[in-house]
């Protein structure tokens, strides 16, 4: 029996291939771990699912604290709350686990081909060439010249963007490991896109997604569609390739390439989780030991060093400023030298320099990434964030909004909502900031700033008890986290007066709910 392709319950539908949750046709954002929890609960609807089963399904064999499960289950339940109680969907069996109690309708997978697609026969596999992709002509579901022309241009842009990724090779013939089939249909206000990835050896569809794109204006419509699609495809195939591993006959270079893929796959799981950052760092180090010139590993190692530094205590961050960030800058510089046409290499260089407070240099690097791909969502979001750190509030909002429109399910979406919440918070618009901070806390639940800004904005909006409960729940879920205002003062990322003034307002809100100074 084939695995279910979708599950329907209440007003929700969950699509297993694309890991997409919808409520009455509208996308519902979930972080990656909450998504995997939901999938397991749906597959075992009505059954008791033990905490051990859930921890193993989401974290594998890694040892993680049980509070991690509590945090992500809480985020899932908030997303499913539909004007009622969370137990309408997931019931806690105290001391044992959880049970999905809402009736679920299951649909099996249908045919895997996009309308008009053709069968591709594949010969040998390319062990040493990483992610090999065949891109057949994009199918237009309307038979008019404008739609056909759009399909041709989407395919051309998609080929260029995927070809720039060091771990990917776009193949013109039968040696590809994967086949990316895409169809488009112009609709009122935009274009509907359906994409599927087939395993070329078996013909099985391994991933599918659909979205409707409205033109933002950063590039032609075909550029925006292909940019959005390329990012989703690469993330999916990185995870798949990382899980498979090279054969014993694979070359030394293939081993380095696979290690780099494992590193990026660890980063794809969720932003800012310490265990994932440490795992990614080990894989990138292993790749560079095998091949010191591997651009993917160079960029990934630089990225991971910065992410670890941002989570560090004030004391260890001072040390990192002197040592590891210099190493990260060197790694990122080598990455752009090895892959000057890869936008992510330039993004990683900008990310390092933002953390070093070299804000003008960071904007130059992000600008280079955007010159290569105007729809690079991560570069857009962090361009806005750098403007924020420089006190340029009116220049921060638009690029972050564009990032959210281009990549609404990116692993960084929680943080991008946090940035937009800060924009409104800095302007004293607490009620507008609160929904962004709620999303940030749900999608990036391990980040202290997401929790503290939500609590502070609630308090300043007059919802003091709600703010206190919100922060107390977060601290408890994080294993009794001890929060003080002095510890937050040590974690600021800029000395710009406008930036610091907003943080003083942040501390004022926290004082209203009883957070200690030290």
From TrEMBL:
Domain of life of the organism encoding this protein: Bacteria
InterPro entries for the chain: OmpR/PhoB-type_DNA-bd, Sig_transdc_resp-reg_C-effctor, TPR-like_helical_dom_sf, TPR_rpt, WH-like_DNA-bd_sf
GO biological process: phosphorelay signal transduction system; regulation of DNA-templated transcription
Coiled coil, from the record: none
Name the UniProt record assigns to this protein: OmpR/PhoB-type domain-containing protein
A Pfam family per the record: Trans_reg_C
Family annotation (SMART domains): TPR, Trans_reg_C
Gene Ontology MF terms: DNA binding
Domain OmpR/PhoB-type span(s) in chain numbering: 4-102
SUPFAM superfamilies named in the record: C-terminal effector domain of the bipartite response regulators, TPR-like
């Amino acid at each position: 029996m084939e695995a279910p392709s979708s599950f329907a319950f209440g007003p929700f539908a969950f699509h297993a291939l694309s890991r997409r949750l919808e409520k009455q046709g509208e996308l519902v954002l979930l972080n990656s771990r909450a998504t995997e929890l939901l999938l397991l609960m749906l597959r075992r609807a009505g059954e008791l699912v033990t905490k051990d089963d859930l921890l193993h399904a989401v974290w594998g064999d890694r040892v993680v604290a049980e509070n991690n499960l509590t945090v992500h289950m809480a985020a899932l339940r908030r997303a499913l709350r539909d004007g009622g109680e969370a137990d309408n969907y997931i019931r806690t069996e105290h001391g044992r686990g959880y049970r999905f109690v809402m009736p679920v309708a299951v649909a099996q997978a249908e045919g895997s081909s996009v309308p008009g697609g053709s069968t591709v026969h594949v010969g040998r596999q390319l062990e040493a060439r990483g992610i090999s992709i065949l891109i057949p002509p994009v199918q237009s579901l309307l038979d008019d010249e404008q739609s056909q022309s759009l399909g041709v241009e989407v395919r051309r842009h998609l080929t260029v963007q995927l070809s720039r990724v060091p771990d990917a090779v776009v193949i013109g013939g039968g040696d590809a490991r994967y086949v990316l089939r895409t169809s488009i249909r112009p609709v009122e206000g935009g274009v509907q896109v359906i994409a599927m990835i087939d395993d070329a050896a078996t013909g099985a569809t391994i991933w599918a997604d659909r979205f409707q794109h409205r033109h933002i204006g950063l590039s032609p419509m075909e550029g925006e569609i292909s940019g959005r699609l390329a990012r989703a495809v690469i993330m999916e195939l990185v995870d798949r390739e990382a899980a498979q591993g090279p054969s014993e006959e694979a070359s030394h270079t293939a081993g380095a390439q696979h290690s780099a893929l494992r590193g990026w796959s660890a980063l794809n799981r969720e932003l800012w989780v310490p265990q994932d950052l440490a795992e990614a760092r080990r894989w990138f180090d292993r790749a560079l030991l095998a091949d010191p010139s591997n651009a993917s590993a160079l960029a990934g190692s630089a990225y991971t060093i910065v992410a670890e530094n941002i989570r560090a205590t004030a004391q260890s961050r001072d040390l990192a400023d002197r040592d590891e960030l210099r190493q990260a800058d060197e790694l990122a510089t080598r990455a752009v030298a090895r892959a000057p046409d890869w936008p992510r290499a330039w993004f990683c260089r900008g990310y390092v320099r933002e953390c070093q407070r070299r804000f003008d240099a960071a904007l130059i690097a992000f600008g280079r990434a955007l010159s290569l791909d105007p729809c690079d969502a991560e570069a857009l979001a962090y361009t806005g964030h750098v403007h924020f750190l420089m006190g340029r509030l009116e220049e921060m909002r638009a690029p972050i909004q564009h990032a959210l429109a281009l990549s609404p399910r990116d692993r960084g979406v929680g943080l991008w909502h946090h940035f937009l919440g800060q924009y409104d918070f800095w302007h004293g618009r607490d009620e507008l900031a609160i929904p962004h901070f709620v999303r940030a806390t749900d999608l990036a639940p391990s980040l202290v700033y997401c929790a503290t800004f939500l609590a502070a904005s609630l308090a300043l909006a007059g919802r003091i008890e709600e703010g206190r409960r919100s922060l107390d729940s977060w601290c408890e879920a994080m294993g009794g986290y001890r929060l003080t205002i002095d510890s937050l003062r040590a974690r600021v990322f800029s000395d710009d007066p406008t930036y610091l003034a907003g943080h003083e307002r942040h501390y004022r809100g926290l004082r209203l709910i009883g957070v200690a100074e030290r």
